[in-house]
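Table S2 (continued). Query chain:
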Amino acid sequence: MPPGSPPDEIVETSQGITLRRIRYTHPATGEAHEFLTSELMLPPGVIAFLYLRRWDLEKVFDELKNKLGAQRAWASTATAKQMQAHLLCLAHNLIQLFERHLAHAHQVRNEAEVKRRAQRLAQQQALARKRGATLPQLVQTHQRLTQTSVKLYRWIRGPLLQSASPRRPIARPDPFLRHSLTQSLDTHGWWICRADSF
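Corresponding output:
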């Protein structure tokens, strides 16, 4: 087992169910975690990482509720609720792809959030060094922005909810969106999403 890998053991419940218990101490904070899982094949460090990254999923639920306006179900049947869930996931993923496209094709990104993420990572690395530890490679390389900028949601939502052309905000958009607005609209004012551009 590599240094810093979580202790890993097989345990059994009183009902005879085999589980895996993984103990993990966060290298930066010293905080102890214990995870129980039925996953027996993945390395213990990956299991600990996946549990700790669960907060990203919670942020997605918050984003769906507060930024996409999904506070309640549109209908009461299970089929309608499932359709709504699929639509929300599709909308969320399309917005993520659009944001990634802006960053890669137009070098338009949420610089404030990128800077905050780098600062958080540097703080965690410094705390880990102070404790004589290092952050696992997964933690260092797989940090994602957990929230899409509310500015991006507002810019996307505005023209869709108004009868005005989406070209109107181009005259005075936030610097975050200026370049992408002029590049992402066709002659009718609609976004062009090509599969080869992602």
